[in-house]
Amino acid sequence: MAEHRSMQRAALLDAARSLLSEGGTEALTFPALAERTGLARSSVYEYFRSRAAVVEELCEVDFPVWAAEVAAAMEVELTPETKVEAYVRRQLALVGDRRHRAVVAISASELDAGAREKIRAAHGGLVALIVEALGEMGHAEPRLAAMLLQGVVDAAVRRIELGAAEDPAAITEAAVAMALRGVRG
Question: Would you say the pTM of this structure is higher than 0.85?
Answer without folding.
Answer: no
